[in-house]
From TrEMBL:
Primary site of residence: membrane
Domain of life: Bacteria
Molecular function terms, GO-annotated: metal ion binding
Protein name from the UniProt record: Succinate dehydrogenase, hydrophobic anchor subunit
Organism classification: Bacteria, Thermotogati, Deinococcota, Deinococci, Deinococcales
Keywords for the protein's UniProt record, in alphabetical order: Heme, Iron, Membrane, Metal-binding, Transmembrane, Transmembrane helix
CDD domains named in the record: SQR_TypeA_SdhD_like (cd03500)
Subcellular location: Membrane
Keyword Nucleotidyltransferase carried by entry: no
Residue ranges crossing the lipid bilayer per the database entry: 20-42, 69-89, 101-125
Pfam families documented for this protein: Sdh_cyt
One CC-aspect GO term: membrane
Amino acid sequence: MTRAKTFQDAKNQAHTNAELNWWIFMRVSGLILVFLVLGHIYMTFLQVSEADATFDAVVYKLSQPVWKLYDWLLLSLALLHGVNGARYSIEDYVRNRPNRFWVKTIFYTVVAIIFVIGSIGLFTISPEFAGPQ
């Protein structure tokens, strides 16, 4: 099956509203991710000089709630966007239903663990880890 390129094609091909909503999510999250990643690259590599990119400076930046939210949003959207894309691939290439179930179960479990570890790591950063600023 050819993937839909327009909203009308997606509406005609979607078996459920959930599939149509995931199709819309992929377009919206992809656009948001472009700006989040470009902002992350700008703030990480262009705005900060090499001499200022120390462990203490990074910890100080990540201890601020705005940057935690920004990076958590980047983590969440990237994982969700990637998982949904991988789900499409799994459904296309794993034809056997029981096998597809187990592949998805293992895949979702690994992604959930990565998300939890990433979130814990991000939200446990506090200014105490950094030296004096």
